[in-house]
Amino acid sequence: MVLLRTGDSDVSAALVREAQGGSDEAFERLYRHHAPRIFALALRMTRTRGEAEDVTQEVFLRAWRSLGTFRRGSTFATWIHSIARNVVFDGSRTRKIPLVGIDEHLRDLARDLPDTRLDLERAVADLPDRARMAVLLAAAGHTYEEIAAIMETAIGTVKAQVHRARQLLKEALA
Amino acid sequence: MNDDSTHDLEDLRRELAPLPLAIEPPDALWNRIRGGIASGRIARTPTGPRWWQLAAAALIIFGGGYMAGRRSPGARAANPAPAASNRPSATAADIQRSGTDYVVALAAFRQLAGKDPRSIEQAREAALATFHGASKELAAITPDDPTARNIRRASASPSSPAESSRGLSF
What we know:
The structure holds 2 protein chains of 2 kinds.
Chain A: H1 9-20, H2 24-46, H3 49-65, H4 76-95, H5 102-112, H6 118-125, H7 129-139, H8 144-151, H9 155-173
Chain B: H1 2-15, H2 28-39, H3 51-71, H4 73-78, H5 88-112, H6 117-141, H7 146-156, H8 161-164
Helix pairs in contact in B: 3-5, 3-6, 6-7
């Protein structure tokens, strides 16, 4: 059993190679390591646990189907978040996310995450969709370059989004 | 700009540090994914009786009867749509299963219908009729729920694929 730590991209790469060879067990280890961050991102993008679960499921099913396209030189975390971005925004066109209002979303978060700060959650939830995703990726430790790759946009755009989002968060929390 | 943007990133991470950025999904989710991998079919299993799940289930109940009645009026009396169980727990399970089937069927159709405009239009009409029927039931169950009212209003109004593709606004 390989234990993964955050940033342990070498181990992820080894597991990806095993999974590419058809190992369910290796893919499950990748899932166990990366799913909590994908689920957290999906939950804050869709605002509902049911939708977040569907998004997470779709992300990992697409990842399984597309493992052959994963190439060395990129990290699995960046790659899987790119898939998540596609699923979230593809879904937004057909499912019209978010399906619930911010107040209901915050009630659910307060129940599921009693330690979180609801004023901060509300401020983040109020951000425009793409800015919210960029901010959440940044907060999760991704670099500007990684966020730009995930969002398929220019680094300058990401920097501007993060800068503007910080201003909006400050105003919301003032 | 580089220094400012670097500071932005560092400050943002510090400001958002109180937010849990990793949340464990339910244990059952991996089983759904493993099942999808094994079968090649996406297995969507609702996790709770949310309003949209209830709506989706109502769609099936209404739409099933509606379509069956249209296709074979005589058969409806002979073979009525299965009544929901009197036991609330069984009814909830029926609703979840029916809602899942509806969503999976639409998702499968979206991928398979391809370039046949006629079949797309037929499916769209059936989906909207079903959706509208469900919205009426939902609004009847919770008449004071603004979300239910909005769903019913929105589902009654689309007149073309272009309009309906904009989705519902809540």
